[in-house]
Amino acid sequence: MRTGIHHVTLITRKVQANVDFYVGFLGLRLVKRTGGFEDSEQLHLFYGDALGSPGSIVTFLVWEDGAPGRVGRGQVSELAFAVPPQSLGEWLTRAITAQVAVSGPTREFGEPVLRLKDPDGVIVKLVGVEMPAQAPLGGPGAPTRLRAVTLLTDETQGTVDFLAHYGYRPAASEGNVRRLLSDTDAVDVRDASGFYEGIPGTGVFDHVAFRAPDFEAVQAMQDVLARWSPTNVHDRKYFRSLYARDPAGILTEYATDAPGFTVDEDAAHLGDRLFVPEADAARAEDLRVMLPQFSLPGEERIVIRDLPFVHRFFVPEDPDGSTVLLLHGSGGHEADLMPFAHRFSPRATLLGVRGRSTEEGHARWFRRRSATVFDQADIRAEAEAFDAFWRQASASYGLAHDRTTVLGLSNGANFAGAFMALYPGSFRRVILIRPMLVLEDPPEVDMQGIDILTLTGSDDPFASHAAVLNDWLRRNGANVEAAEVAAGHALVTADLEQARAWAASVSTP
pLDDT band for position 1 (50/70/90)? Predict the structure, then answer.
C-alpha cells in the first residue's frame, strides 16, 4: 500500500492573511471551504495541489482573532513543501520582496531548505527536491507536495515505534533529529526532552494525518492502535478517518484517500462554495453569515483596520449601503448576533464588535460586581475606548451614522445605553434587547431625534430594570418604543418581528 502524509491541520487567527499567504504567496489552490465537522461555527479551509491530492494538503481551522497557542513538545512544529530545486533562488527573492520572514538556504538531510514564517509565525519550509505533483499547480516553481513534518517529542523511541504503524521507517539522523521515511515523504522526529509543553491555540498545529488505502484499513487500524485508545471512525465527507495520540501526546489521524474533494464540486470549481456539515443543514444560512468572510487574491475586499476593539464584517451579496452595528451579550462574540441581524435587515452590512472585558474567560463589555451592580469606572473607560473605535471605524470604513442601526443584546444593550449617555449623538437608531440602566448617575443629555426600541421578556428576571432606562431615555428626549415579548432573557422570534415592525415605522436609515 502507498504510505505517507495525507494532510496537516493548523489553527489560524486571521483568515484573510492566511489566504493571502497560502494562495497568494505560495500559490496553493484553495480546494475546499467548510464549516468545521466538530464545530460548524468554525471555518475550515483546505489548500493543496490542483485537485487537493492526498500528500499535498494543508488545512486550517479558523479561530478568528483567537488566543495564540504555544509550540512545544507533544506537537507538530514545522511543515515542509517540496519545490523544484532550481526554484529556491526565485523563492528567496519573492520572500524578500513580499516581506515574508525567511532564512537560508541551509541544508537538512542533504537537501537545500528555505525557512519561512507564515502570518501566524508557523515555520513553513521550502525544500529543493524533485517530488512530482499528482495534480500540478501553475508556475514552474510551484510547490509539488508535502516533503515532511517535524514532531517534537520527549518519547523519541516511542514516537518512532508508533509511526511505524503508518508505514514510516528510520532512515537517518542529524543531531537530535531522526528522519523517518515512507513511500512518499518524511517525518522528522526531534527530541524535545526538557522543552516546555505545547499549548493549543492559533499559530500552532492541530494534527498530522497519514494515508490509509481504504476504509477497511482504517477499521483495522483501530485494533492495531488499541493500546493508544483511538477514536471511532469519523466520516469527514472527503475522507474517513480515526485519531490517536502517540506516546508523547502528538495527535495523529489516519485518513482514506477517497472519495476526495470532487465529491461535491467539480474539478474546475473546487473551493468556490462554502459547505456546511450535513448535521447542521438546518442552520446552514445562519452559519454562512457567522463564518468569517475573506477574499481570494485579486478580489475586492474590506481592509480590516487595527482598531481598539476586535471586529468583523459580513457583507451580503447585494448590500444597500446601510449598516447594523452589533454588540453581543455576556459570553458572546462578534458574530453571535449576525444571523438575527441578517434576518432583520438582509441587505445591510453587519459590523460585529467584541467586548474587551472578560469574566471567567467570557467576553463582556464591562466588569460587574454582581448581577445588577456594575464597575462604574470600567464602564466609562470602555466607553471612552469605544468612542475612539467608533470614530475611527466610521472614517476608515465609510460608515454613515444616519444609515446605521445599533443592535445590542443584554450586556451589549446595557453598554449601548451607557455609551449614548456618555457620548450623546453617536447613535441615531438603536435596538436594545433585554436592557437595563447600568450607570449609577447618568447625565442629562440631549437625545432629541434618536429612535430607540427596547425589548423586554415577560419571563426575564431582570425585566423590571428596563423601565428605569426607558424613563431616562424619554426624559432626555429620545423617541422610545418599549415592547414586551413572551420570553426570558434569550432572543426569540418575537424579538425579530418587533424589530422589523419598529424599523418600518421609523424613518428609513
Answer: low
> Looking at residue 140, what is its pLDDT?
83
| Cell numbers standing for residue 381 | 473607560
Over the chain, what is the mean pLDDT? Answer: 96
323: exposed, middle or buried (C-beta count within 10 Å: 0-12, 13-18, 19+)? buried
**E strand or H helix at 161, and its extent?**
helix 156-163
**Homologous superfamily (CATH) for 302-505:** Alpha/Beta hydrolase fold, catalytic domain (3.40.50.1820)
φ/ψ region of 262 (left if φ > 0, alpha if ψ in -120 to 50, else beta) reads alpha
**pLDDT digit string, tens, across residues 397-451:** 999 999 999 999 999 999 999 999 999 999 999 999 999 999 999 999 999 999 9
Instruction: Judge whether 474 and 501 are in contact, CB under 8 Å.
Output: no
DSSP 8-state code for residue 281: G
10 Å CB burial of residue 106 (0-12, 13-18, 19+) is exposed
Cα(339)–Cα(3) distance, integer angstroms: 44
- At which residue does the C-alpha cell 460586581 appear? 369
Residue 370 half-sphere exposure toward CB, CA atoms < 13 A: 3
Model pTM score: 0.95
What is the per-residue pLDDT for 138? 86
- CA-nearest of 482, 119, 45, 113 to 275 is 45
What's the topology of domain 5-279? 2,3-Dihydroxybiphenyl 1,2-Dioxygenase; domain 1 (3.10.180)
Backbone angles phi, psi at 221, to 5 degrees: -65, -25
**pLDDT for the residue 397:** 96
Looking at residue 509, its pLDDT comes to 45
106 sits in which H/E element: strand 102-108
Starting from the edge strand earliest in sequence, which strands make up the sheet with 274-275, in order?
Answer: 234-235, 240-245, 251-256, 205-212, 5-12, 57-62, 43-48, 29-35, 274-275
From the list 21, 13, 70, 60, the residue with the least C-alpha distance to 354 is 13
Compute the distance between CA of residue 147 and CA of residue 429 in angstroms, rounded to an integer: 56
Backbone dihedral region of 399: left (phi > 0), alpha (psi from -120 to 50 degrees) or beta? beta
Mean of pLDDT values over 343-361: 95
- Amino acid code (one letter) for 384: E
Instruction: Say what the pLDDT of residue 360 is.
Output: 86
Domain locations in the chain as residue ranges = 5-279, 302-505
pLDDT tens digits for range 452-465: 999 999 999 999 99
What 3-state class would DSSP assign to 363? strand
Q: What is the DSSP string of 168-212?
A: -EEEEEETTEEEEE-SS-EEEEEE-TTSPBPB-SBTSEEEEEEEE
